[in-house]
Amino acid sequence: MSTSQSTPPSVSGAAPPQGAPADASAPASGGEPPAPPRFILYLDGPAYAQTLRQLTLWTHHVLLPVYGREVTSQSPWCPVWWEHPEAVARLHGLWLAWGDLTGPGSDMTGPAVWHRDHLSSVMDTLRDPQGPFAGCKPGMHRPKAKPTVETMDPFGPPPPPPPPSPWS
């Protein structure tokens, strides 16, 4: 398996992830290799938008035409998958693994490793009837309610005691 940080290949005009040239083995203009791409959940603003666009191009022009099976109630796919943060995170990880295992400098067995170690687990999780696309179907997106979380930090310092009452 390759340990180099190559990036996903360009797909229909998609540029490599933010901060990485098309060939990550090539030194940047300063003579040092570029920083590896950042995981999409750490990005915001224009960097997030550009990375999501690149991910969308790869998903629509590589992943789905080859691996997107028929949509059924037992194997849903959301037509606006980018509205599901879990799907964005999982697909971005899959895309980064694709770039690392199939890009320039990768081993000849990289594609087999990508299929074995990454593709099935991501697609099975996304398309599970209880997964992030549950209730979505062609032409219909169903937003998911986020779980409620207590606002108090259970592992933080205890709150200070209340001040003494002037009437005691």
Can you walk me through this structure?
This protein has 3 helices and no strands. It is mainly α. The chain starts with 44 loop residues before the first helix and ends in a 42-residue tail after the last helix. It has helices at 45-67, 85-102, 110-126. Mean pLDDT is 83; it is low at 1-26. Helix 1 packs across helix 2 and helix 2 (85-102) runs antiparallel to helix 3. The longest helix is centred in the middle third of the chain and has 23 residues, at 45-67. The radius of gyration is 21 Å and the shape is extended.
Number of helices: 3
Q: What string gives the helices and strands in order?
A: HHH
Taking all Cα atoms into account, the compactness measure Rg is: 21 Å
Task: Classify the helix fraction into a percent range.
Answer: 25-40%
Distance between the termini: 71 Å
**Contiguous runs where pLDDT drops below 50 for at least 5 residues:** 1-26
- How much of the sequence lies in strands comes to under 5%
The count of β-strands is: 0
Task: Average the pLDDT over all residues and give the rounded result.
Answer: 83
Features:
single chain, 168 residues, mainly alpha, 35% helix, 0% strand, extended
Quick gist of this model?
With 168 residues, the protein is mainly alpha-helical. It is built from three helices and no strands. The longest helix has 23 residues, at 45-67.
